[in-house]
Design goal:
This protein is of the alpha/beta class. It has helices at residues 2-18, 37-53, 67-76, 86-93, 102-117, 137-143, 164-167, 173-180, 194-200, 214-218, 244-247, 250-261, 265-276, 282-292; strands spanning 28-34, 57-65, 81-85, 120-121, 131-135, 159-162, 186-189, 206-210, 222-224, 236-240.
Length: 299
């Protein structure tokens, strides 16, 4: 809880620091994002589309920080829009018990942020960036692992490498251990993709990944089945501070167009792969995808 409170304080501090640039009388939107690959790509996808189709100037603030940092920035008016995930709103931000019902979680998230902060939520994209527990093929074969429940007999042998946020989230390690009735023997915190390197090198033997991470496929990892359906759905959607949608109603239509091409996990995995593995810039990847899909014109 101390770390969670610290994260909330950090979020408020960041929101105050960047608040001065949130809005201006000009036609400008400030679009923020979290600090990992997928979020950076999403910032540029929505920004490129808006700039191509409208006269609105977009200021991009990708890589602001974790969930609570970016959420607090939206509350403070430091940013106007960011892409969030249904399960993150429902469980992490509002503290509800997890649910595997996609539409229920989305509708509840939409209602909660509207009632609490007058935020508007647009339609969901078609990929589910849910948490998965991942191990190497060798470790899975050694211990006959197929599901998360299979970890129970070897819990003391587990050395997990997780992000700071996953370690401290109720829809992360805390809730997973409560639901499955075991505790990971040793836990180390990593940022970004460093946990994958640690898994490859044998420094840890289990990690958490996102369902749309390209490295799961590249490293041929085993994603353990969530047999108790603990992890909620994490479908992405744009979330806007109050008044922005009324001022720019075209944003809903543009979001729907983007949702139509980000309509499955494979589409997002392919974009993440280009950044994580091919070392392309997120903005370059986003723009090329929009051109390929016919949503914007090439220069």
């Amino acid at each position: 809880m101390k770390l969670l409170q610290k994260m909330i304080s950090m979020g408020a501090a960041v929101a105050m620091l960047v608040g001065a640039s949130a809005c201006s009388p000009q036609e400008k939107l400030v679009i923020g994002g979290k600090e990992y690959t997928e979020q950076r790509i999403l910032v540029h996808l929505i920004s490129e589309l808006i700039e191509d189709r409208t006269d609105i100037q977009v200021e991009r603030k990708d890589g602001l920080g974790g969930t609570l940092v970016v959420y607090n920035a939206l509350k403070a008016g430091s940013i106007d829009l960011y892409i969030e995930y249904s399960g993150t709103v429902y469980v992490t931000i509002f503290g509800n018990e997890t649910s595997s019902d996609m539409e229920y979680v989305y509708n509840q998230a939409k209602t909660l942020v509207k009632d609490e902060n007058n935020f508007d939520v647009l339609s969901q994209f078609g990929f589910n960036n849910t948490y998965v527990m991942a191990v190497t093929q060798e470790f899975a074969q050694l211990h006959n692992l197929e599901t998360i429940s299979d970890l129970i007999p070897i819990a003391d042998e587990l050395h997990g490498g997780f992000t700071y946020e996953f370690i401290n989230r109720q829809d992360g390690l805390i809730g997973m251990e409560e639901t499955y009735g075991f505790e990971v023997g040793e836990v180390s915190a990593f940022e970004g993709t460093l946990r994958y390197q640690a898994l490859e090198n044998g420094n840890i033997n289990i990690t958490t990944a996102f369902g749309t991470d390209s490295l799961i496929q590249k490293l041929n990892l085993v994603a353990l089945e969530d047999d108790l359906s603990f992890f909620p759905p994490y479908y992405a959607f744009p979330m806007l501070r109050g008044g922005i949608l009324e001022k720019y109603p075209i944003l809903a239509d543009l979001s729907d167009e983007l949702a139509a091409v980000l309509n499955n996990d494979a589409a997002m995995i392919a974009l993440n792969y280009q950044v994580d593995e091919l070392q392309l810039e997120p903005r370059e990847v986003a723009r090329a995808f929009l051109i390929e899909q016919g949503l914007i014109d090439a220069d």
